[in-house]
Write a structure and sequence with these properties.
With 281 residues, this protein is an alpha/beta fold. The chain contains 8 helices and 12 strands. Helices cover 39% and strands 26% of the residues.
């Protein structure tokens, strides 16, 4: 068994017939100092692996996750992948990338500007939302409260996949959205910190991130959201009821507001429901 470490990659070659994690750990710890976002285990030159050897990856995942970093396996030969799939607790926990390039892209997506503050203004983003108005409101709140503006993208990972599994398309969409929102803030002469978080559920993820970032305001912009209506209402309801911080829901006006009818209402339409619950004639 040969272990070779360079940049953010630990390369394994030969036969992995026992748990080599204690041997690999020293090299991995050195790489994590230079690449705290995570490291890549390249298995392209592995020839054979046993069930005990597969425990190397399970132990590595546990220790690296405890260090608040990520580990991605890549380039697994087909015969190695078949064995890994059959080892309990390995395939279900250890994320696998299709290539080194995909693994690096995923690790970069997860990297976060270091945030060490007592409070913040949090603006969650998701595809299709009206982030411009939300960012604008977030900037105003950040200036008044002298707190940093944090742009958050929660990447939902299916429960049938390890949480760290690379999702190239979704990660690219998240990066693009964070960059666009950060640029929007910059045009308004403000600086925003960005963070992408992998979550199982969007609502629970935003609530948890509001706590983790010590948010005093969470600003949610609503536009032509790609979220299904029932999911959007579920998200808003939970934020309003369960969030420990103030919640601001911002709805951008439509580009083409509907034209109200000018015809005289019929007799059956004159009775309307009042805001207090009574009726008006």
């Amino acid at each position: 068994m040969i272990v070779y470490a360079k940049e953010d990659i630990v390369s394994l070659s030969g036969n992995l017939h026992r748990n080599y994690w204690l041997t690999i750990k020293a090299a991995a710890n050195l790489l994590l100092k230079e690449h705290p976002e995570g490291i890549i285990i390249d298995c392209e030159e592995l020839k054979d692996i046993s069930e005990d050897g597969a425990g190397t990856f399970s132990d590595a995942f546990h220790d690296i996750q405890a260090a608040n970093a990520r580990m991605l396996m890549t380039n697994l030969p087909d015969q190695i992948m078949e064995i890994v799939r059959d080892v309990p607790g390995v395939r279900s926990r250890v994320p696998i990338a299709n290539s080194i390039e995909e693994a690096r892209s995923s690790l970069r997506s997860q990297a976060e500007t270091d945030i060490n503050v007592s409070e913040s203004i949090l603006v969650p983003l998701f595809s299709g939302m009206g982030y411009q108005e939300a960012v604008s409101i977030g900037i105003d709140l950040a200036r008044v409260n002298k707190a940093p503006l944090v742009l958050l993208y929660c990447l939902e990972v299916g429960r049938d996949l390890p949480l760290g599994t690379p999702l190239p398309k979704m990660e690219a969409e998240g990066r693009a959205l964070l960059e666009a929102a950060a640029e929007e803030a910059l045009q308004k002469h403000a600086t925003a910190l960005t963070h992408m978080e992998r979550v199982r559920d969007l609502t629970e993820g935003i609530l948890q991130q509001a706590d983790d970032h010590k948010a005093i305001y969470t600003v949610l912009g609503i536009d032509s959201s790609d979220l299904q209506e029932h999911r959007l209402m579920h998200l808003i309801e939970n934020l309003m009821q369960r969030s420990k911080c103030n919640v601001v829901i911002s709805r951008c006006p439509p580009d083409n507001p509907p034209v109200l009818p000018t015809r005289k209402p019929s007799m059956t339409s004159r009775r309307i429901r009042g805001t207090s619950g009574g009726t008006a004639k």
